[in-house]
Amino acid sequence: MIDAAFGTASEAPPLRAAGSSRVEHAWAVLASVLDPEVPVVSVVDLGIVRAVSDDGETLTVVVTPTYSGCPATDVIEASIVAALADAGLGPARIRMQRAPAWTSDWISAEGRARLRGYGIVPPGPVDLAEGVPLRFVPRAVAPLACPRCESMDTERLAAFGATACKALWRCRACGEPFEHFKSI
C-alpha cells in the first residue's frame, strides 16, 4: 500500500501480472494507494479514481474528489503520481473531473467492509428511483448500527466529524463513538 498522507510506499508496488496491459497494471497499483484521511481504504475502493488511459508516453488518471473542497486532493494527486512512477508506469498526469459529482454509491463493497472494520459506518447505497433529497430543515435521523457491537441504540452527536463528509455518532449500548460516511 502507499501511504497517501506522506506519499511513501509502505510496501513494494504490486508486480505486473504476466500478459496484463499497462492500464491493468496501473489499476492494480492504484488499488494500493490509500486515502490520507481514512488510511484503510484505497482511492480505487473509495471510487474517486474514475478512469485510467494510456496516452502513449503518459498515463492519464481521472479523479473525482469526494467533494470539491476536499483538502486531501493535492495529497491524493501526488500519491497517485508517485505510486505509478515507483511501479515504472510513469509519467502520469491527473485530470480532475468534478462532474458528475462523486457519490458514496461509488464506494466498492470491499471499501465498505474496510470502513466498517475501521469503525466508520459506510453509507448505504442510494435507491436511484428515490435519490437523496437536498434538505434545508433538519429532520429526524434514523439510527445506525454500531460498527463495534451492532446495536441500533445509537445517536448522532454532530452533523460533521473529522471531515465534512462524515458525521459523529455514539453508541448508547457500548458507549463508543464512531463516524458515519454521509450518503452523497
Helix content: 10-25%
Poorly predicted regions are none
The whole-angstrom Rg is: 18 Å
* Form type: elongated
Task: State the separation between the terminal residues, measured CA to CA.
Answer: 27 Å
Predict the CATH topology of the largest domain: GMP Synthetase, Chain A, domain 3
Strand-residue proportion = 15-25%
Task: Give the assembly state of these chains.
Answer: single chain
Examine the secondary-structure arrangement and name the CATH architecture of the largest domain: 2-Layer Sandwich
Summarize the structure in words.
This protein has 184 residues and is of the alpha/beta class. It folds into 2 domains: 2-96, Fe-S cluster assembly (FSCA) (GMP Synthetase, Chain A, domain 3); 119-181, no CATH class. It is 18% helix and 22% strand. It contains 3 helices and 9 strands. The strands form 3 sheets. A 4-stranded mixed β-sheet has the order 6-9-8-7. It has a 3-stranded mixed β-sheet with strand order 3-4-5, covered by helices on one side. A two-stranded antiparallel sheet has the order 1-2. Strand 3 (49-55) and strand 4 (58-63) form a beta hairpin. It is elongated and about 55 Å long. The chain starts with a strand and ends with a strand. The model has no long low-confidence stretch (mean pLDDT 85).
Tags for this model:
elongated, 9 strands, four-stranded mixed beta sheet, 184 residues, alpha/beta, GMP Synthetase, Chain A, domain 3
Topology at a glance:
Elements: E1 2-3, E2 8-9, H1 22-30, E3 49-55, E4 58-63, H2 73-86, E5 92-96, H3 109-118, E6 120-121, E7 154-158, E8 166-171, E9 177-181
Parallel strand pairs: 4-5, 6-9
Antiparallel strand pairs: 1-2, 3-4, 7-8, 8-9
